[in-house]
Structure formats: C-alpha cells, structure tokens
Protein 1
Amino acid sequence: MKKLVIIGQGPAGISAALYAVRGGADVTVVAKDLGALAKADKIENYYGFEHGISAKELILAGIAQAKNLGAHFIENEVCGIEFSADGYDVKLGDGCSLSAGAVIIAVGTSRNVPKIGNIQRFEGSGVSYCAICDGFFFRGKKVAVIGNAAYALSEYNVLKNIIEDVTILSDGNIPSFDSPACNTKKIDRFEGNEHLESVVFSDGTSEHFDAAFIACGSAGAFELSKKLGLETDNGKIVTDYNCATNIPGIFAAGDCTKGLQQIAKAVYEGMIAGTQALKYLKSLG
Ligand SMILES: Cc1cc2nc3c(=O)[nH]c(=O)nc-3n(C[C@H](O)[C@H](O)[C@H](O)COP(=O)(O)OP(=O)(O)OC[C@H]3O[C@@H](n4cnc5c(N)ncnc54)[C@H](O)[C@@H]3O)c2cc1C
C-alpha cells in the first residue's frame, strides 16, 4: 500500500493517524509544533476527564499513543503539496519531500496575513498567496516575497526558477536564513492604481514591485489549498461527509475545515479522514 502523510499533530491529525495505522497504513505525521492546544491551559469539556486535563498533557498523550501504534513522526514545516507520478509529494521546509499516495491536511486555523496597508485592495492585482500558481504571470517583472522563514525561502526558490528579479522583504523581522540577502525594512503599505506598483516602507522610502507574494510564518490551510487547487470557503477547506476534498486522495480534518473549532469535532473528523484515506489507499492496490 502507498504511504499516508498527515500534516499536523493536533487532535485531528493524531486521531486520523490512530485509525489509519491500526487499519494497516504506513503513516507519517509531519508537524511543526503542538498546534492550538499548546496555547490552551486546562480542557474541561472533552470526554472522559472527570477533573479536566492539561491541554499539553492531552496532546502529548495522543502523540505517544500514535507512536506506540507505529505511526512515524517528523518535526518539520510543510511548504506545499504537489502532484507526482506516485500521487503526491509533500514539500518540507528543509527542501526534502515525502512521497504519499494520500494526504490528510490537519493544519488547524492559523493564517498569517501581515498588517500591511492596502494588502486586501491589491489581492489578485499583484498581491498573491501562491508562487506556483501566480509566478508565471510575472515573468520578466520585478517581484517581492514577504516573509522571513522557511516558507518565504521556499516561495523564493519557486519564483527564482521563472523570474530573475526576486527580493525577499522580511518586514522588519530577522531572517532565519543567511542567503539570499533580504531587505529587512518594516513595510508600511502597498501602493498602485489598478495594480500593485510599489512597496512603501515605514522609513518613508519606497521600491517598485510588480507583485508581492505573501509567505509570512508557515503555509496554512489556505496557502496549501491554493497550490493544489483545493476548494476553500472563507479560508476553510471544503470537504464532504467523508472529509474528502475536491481532489481524490486529499482529505482534511479539524479546525481547517468548516464548523466548530473544538477538540471533539477535530477528533471526529480525524477518525473519518483516517478511515477514508485508508480505504482510498487500499483501492489504489
Ligand atoms: C487558547 C485555546 C483554548 C482552547 N480551549 C479549548 C477547550 O477548552 N475545548 C476544546 O474542545 N477546544 C479548545 N480549543 C480549540 C482546540 O484547541 C482546537 O479545536 C483543536 O486543537 C483543533 O485541532 P486540529 O488538529 O484541527 O488543529 P491544531 O490542534 O491547531 O493542530 C494543527 C497542527 O498542524 C500543524 N501545522 C500547521 N501548519 C503546518 C505546516 N505548514 N507544516 C507542518 N505542520 C503544520 C501544527 O504544528 C499542529 O501540529 C482551544 C484553543 C485555544 C487556542
């Protein structure tokens, strides 16, 4: 059977891993951190804990349970998912990739949209959230990537394959990489008429750019969906009652889909996504 890659080790990703691995799938969970529960204190509304439980304890117990059952874990950031001959290549922040027959996206809600003036005004008119989708339109032009970490570097590398003049703007943040050199000035706003024409910095200077690719923090559900062509609604991944997306072999569960943002819902959807991904992988032979 081909491999299952689960992106996220929150309640949705872990629940999916438990069901898929017990059903015989070769499961790899890749996650960058502990997700939303790392920010929570005590959980009092999840089934089975008479006096509540510490959020961290709950998530660490789930991870240990999945590991005991045979799921593999990789601590890394996912920068994209691409179609491949074998199904999908899950692209990691260190430049490596994981091959998968099916993928479950369980990345939670986080979406990093920087506070830059006029950003929404130029969305679709020079401001993009996906280098692989929109880079082609700016061949021969001058473009910026906004961000300072692995995801920004990954988007830079995608653009560099097709565009010569690409600059990373770290928006006042310290870059996590040495090369390429970045412009580290804080950004105040975007300017232009119909289309983005320049980036204005907080020190009053400005620089001409035909496009700005937003890649702050890490790729969330919205960015991963754009790259693959997954249907979204208000930033959430659209799924059916099987947690299936509009692309065969790609499932989604938890806070990154519509509905209540609660552990019980994430665990439920993880179970569905895990069992349905297993069924899908078996159908591939
Ligand atoms: C302060 C706070 C208190 C809460 N209290 C409660 C409560 O009392 N009861 C309750 O039911 N719910 C509570 N919640 C909500 C609950 O935490 C979420 O509904 C639940 O964690 C969602 O699970 P998830 O697996 O979908 O996402 P998350 O738990 O957010 O997990 C997302 C996972 O995806 C990973 N990830 C994201 N992007 C990437 C990427 N690009 N590459 C690799 N990995 C990635 C993260 O590292 C993480 O492992 C609370 C949330 C917060 C923030």
Note: The CA atoms of residues 41 and 55 lie 6 Å apart.
Protein 2
Amino acid sequence: MTVFESAFADDELADNKSRAVTINGQSVLICRAAGELYALENRCSHQEAELEGGRIRGCFISCPLHGVRFDLRDGSPMGQLTRVAVPTFEVRVVDGMIEVAVP
Ligand code: FES
C-alpha cells in the first residue's frame, strides 16, 4: 500500500522552485516546474550533492555542483557524468498540502 506523508503547504512553493524536506529519514526534494509538482531524492547520482536550489528549466533540474540535468519525471540524467537515475516519488496535493509517498 502506498502511504503518503505530508510535506508543506502547496502555496509555499513558487513555480520553478524546489524545497527539501525530510520524510522517513530521507531528504526529499519537492519541485514545481511549469506548474507541475515533482518529488525526487535530494541527492545527485554523480557525487551526492544536494539538488536543492538547482536551476529548473522545463521539466529538468540542474545539479548545483557540476550541472548534470535530471528529468524530473523519472530522474534520468542527461550527459556523460552519470548514467544513474535519481529515485523519484509520487507526489499529490490534498486539502492544500503537498504529500509525498516515500518508501
Ligand atoms: S554532484 Fe551533481 S553533477 Fe556532480
């Protein structure tokens, strides 16, 4: 069964911004890109930098450290530095609160 945990209010996250929260002991990055919400592990698959604050363009976030771009829809990387996807999580809004399903 998928269990969703509450993160923060939907109206606290502007478009093309990201914010990290700790859920079940895991740092999860919630992003709003072109109006859509996405959630992924807040850790780059290249050298484990936090992805929070990375530039968001379209449905991609760029790692602040070396600039690898990850597709927010499935965590897949672009370019040569890493071929490992960042895990993504289901995200939804219930009664104005963002909720994430983190295993
Ligand atoms: S640590 Fe993210 S691109 Fe290198």
Note: The pocket of FE2/S2 (inorganic) cluster is lined by residues 44, 46-47, 49, 63, 65-66, 68, 81 (CB under 6 Å).
